[in-house]
Amino acid sequence: MQNGDASRIDVPHSFPPPGLVLPTQLIQNQIHELAKTLPPPRKQNTACDACRSRKVKCNRLPDQDKCQHCFSKNYPCTHFVQQATSEKKRNAAARRPRGISTSSSVPVCMRCGSTRVPVLTLAFFSVFSGSSPVSSGGSHSPVGENCTPPWSQSAFGAPWNSRFGGYPNITLQSNPSSLLYHLFAPPEAAPSDSLFAFGPIKSRSSAYSAWGEMATKLEDESFRIEFALDLVEVYFQIVHTRLPLLNPSQFRARLNLQAAGQRPIISNKQDELLHPALIATVLAWGAKFSEHELLVADRQRNGGQSLLAKTLIERCRELAESTKVHRILQFQHVTIALLIEPLQCQNPEAEHGFHGFWLNSGIRNLLGLQINHKSVMADIKDAETRGTMIFAWWMACLADAFSAFYYRRKPMLDDDDYDIDFYTVDPGVQESIDPGKPSPRDQLEFLGYYSTAHALARISRQIARLLWRPTTDSEGIPLDAALRYSSELTDWRDAHLSKVGVPPNLVANWDFLAAVSACASDAQYHVMWIGLFNAMDDYGIRDDCLSPSSMNQVETVKRKVFEEALNASLRVSALAGVLTSNGYLKLDPAVMHVSIIHAGYFLAHLARPEVQNCIEGLYQYSYAYEETKETAQRIKRAYETALINGPTFHEMSNAVLRPSPRAQVLKAGSPTNGNGVCRAHESMFVVT
Questions:
Q1: pLDDT tens digits for 373-421?
Q2: Residue 428 banded pLDDT, cuts 50, 70, 90
Q3: CA 207 to chain centre
Q4: Dihedrals φ, ψ of 678, to 5°?
Q5: Are 566 and 667 in contact (CB under 8 A)?
Q6: Does the pLDDT at position 37 exceed 60?
Q7: 199 pLDDT higher than 50
Q8: CB 335 within 8 A of CB 245
């Protein structure tokens, strides 16, 4: 590593670091407004056949059985037939208990047909911090008239003044000051059967020693409030730019840390309650990236890692479990679940690592709320809630597809599990004059990004389902599937990569947000080739024909996938080098790490010197995600082994040992720029 010490982590004493420009509060608000601009689904067309064929508006006449057009022309009218059919479909959909998945049995309320979600598995994103109670009144309501709509405040499933087992002092009405007291309680003060300390403690000073010499300041309430506000600001500067599902101004207003006693009675949207688990999750995110002097001292005491940050992660998870976030249908629960998943350790082999629990919980909540139904989405009257839910749906949809491919698991969602889709914004709309709102141009770019990401996610979902099947493990990947997936990835690259990936030369005015977003999109595509190569290397390719032509196809697709995987690994290595040199990876909320790890192992097994960028990037990543340091060390050992023994592959070894002329250009002996980046890729990245 640089300076001869790969394990050393320099901790700056100021935040943000010098030269790093982070989003202002105005930009944070614009990012959230942009996230809500995914348009709602189109409503069902109830025009009669005659009006539809002539493309005229179908207007109903009072006390008439025909529309205005058919009445004037004396045509037979089907307006009321179409309307009745649409209403029948919506009512049937509302009455029908919708299963959460094809393989699970969901208890159904015999009174109204609504569902209760059982204990489940995983989560990734955030919904509006205080969604207003919205019911879908009328005959089209998705729940019975005597039951609470799934998006109401009371859908927490328990009275606001109830107490949860194991957390007797934390309720849904606990004021933020009381919540901070328990969240920042020293670890030794907690009883053996609970994570938090409940009740007064005579002296907690010595118990704070594990968090550094400054941690005793947490005994002071004013310092706890100041510290919490700092963590909130770090969250909106770093995490919110990548996961924009909270409204920054409303969250700050509702937090109200200066309030004493019980939380106020709700009088308007600004006063709506923040879920205590949501507050805890935001604070845990802030502690992961903050360089507050207390956390700096904590890291210096504990070898570069913050024990306080890890404790807050555990406590926010425990609080979410105790308040049944993973079980009860509520908009804020979707937010909390999707925010907790990337907050945790991302090593799937770790006890508290990525097991998909919170991501799947968020998806099941979304399905239980019927967000995947176009008709239900249209019934949510509050525009902010509806926009946030649409955005949460697509983020969860993408996360489910890509994580299933990365970790070879069965995706939770199918292509036909939802009928809401992306629609374009009218480019002719004039620029917004409100500085807090995104421009139509920004909306078009935003919609374009998620449309292309969804197209790639569908390919990822198909590959993941194939790799999950036991027959693939025992018999190999079918030749036609390998050919089809390599062709689909090539088509996606030709159609979309130039729009969302890193341009040939990074422009001089690119900031933190623009750089990390483009690099993440670019790497997300390229890691698909590496994952496909690894799957073919593990399972092999099944050729049922055994003819000379099919055998030639097998060798051809192997060489193609190897070349693409090699080029993809070099690309990701170059991206990691750029982000590492700018100090951006220490501020990344678990977006780039999978691509860097896959590229690092691939290059290490080939004994390629470009692996150094991946190793250094993962060391920098360990500032917030401790597990990546150990991963970097394993990649380094694999590289050193490959230098001695040569490439180590299995089913794809013949393709690796006989590289094409294109791969020869990028061989290990190619000149580098001194940072482990092949000069063939260096010209793509010019950062000023």
A1: 888 887 888 877 887 888 899 899 999 999 999 999 999 999 899 887 6
A2: very low
A3: 36
A4: -60, 135
A5: no
A6: yes
A7: no
A8: yes
Rounded-to-integer distance, Cα 265 and Cα 252, Å: 17
Rounded Cα gap, residues 223 and 410, in angstroms = 46
Residue 123, strand partner residues: 359
- Position 173 scores a pLDDT of 78
Rounded distance between C-alpha atoms, residue 284 and residue 281, angstroms: 5
Distance of CA 220 to the CA centre of its chain: 36
Residue holding tokens 């493990």?
473
**Angle of CA points 363, 365, 369, to nearest 5°:** 115
Q: Please report the DSSP string for 97-134 in residue order.
A: PPPSSTT----B-TTT--B---S---B-----TTPPP-
pLDDT band at residue 280 using 50, 70 and 90 as cut-offs: very high
| Residue 345: strand, helix, or coil | coil
In SS3 terms, 183-206 reads as HCCCHHHCCCCCCCCCCCCCCCCH
- What are the helix and strand counts (H, E) for the chain? 26, 2
- Spatial contact of 397 and 447, defined as CB atoms under 8 Å apart: no
User: Taking phi first (over 0 means left), then psi (-120 to 50 degrees means alpha), and beta for anything else, what does residue 201 get?
Assistant: beta
Nearest to 451 by CA among 476, 473, 423: 423
CA separation for the pair 613, 644 (Å, rounded):
20
DSSP 492: H
Whether residue 593 contacts residue 629, with contact meaning beta carbons closer than 8 Å, is answered with no
| Mean predicted confidence (pLDDT) in 353-359 | 87
Q: What is the 3-state secondary structure (H, E, C) of 31-89?
A: HHHHHCCCCCCCCCCCCCHHHHHHCCCCCECCCCCCEHHHHHHCCCCCHHHHHHHHHHH
Please say whether the beta carbons of 136 and 377 come within 8 A: no
Q: Is the pLDDT of residue 317 over 50?
A: yes
pLDDT at 36: 62
Name the residue with higher pLDDT: 568 or 269: 568
Residues 574, 596 contacting (CB under 8 angstroms): no
- Tallying the residues shown for the chain, one arrives at 688
C-alpha span between 93 and 140 (Å, rounded): 9
- pLDDT tens figures, 218-231: 999 999 999 999 99
Name the strand (E) or helix (H) holding 541. strand 541-542
The tens digit of pLDDT for each residue in 135-153 reads 333 333 333 333 433 333 3
pLDDT digits (tens, 9 = 90+) for 604-613: 999 999 999 9
Higher pLDDT, 26 or 339: 339
Whole-angstrom CA distances from 251 to 26, 104, 291 are 14, 36, 22
Residues contacting residue 24 through CB under 8 Å, at least 6 positions apart? none
**Cα distance between the two ends of the chain:** 23
CA distance 289 to 284: 9
Strands (DSSP E) along 267-339, which ranges? Answer: none
Give the integer Cα–Cα distance in Å for 631 and 612: 13
Strand pairing partners for 60?
Answer: 67
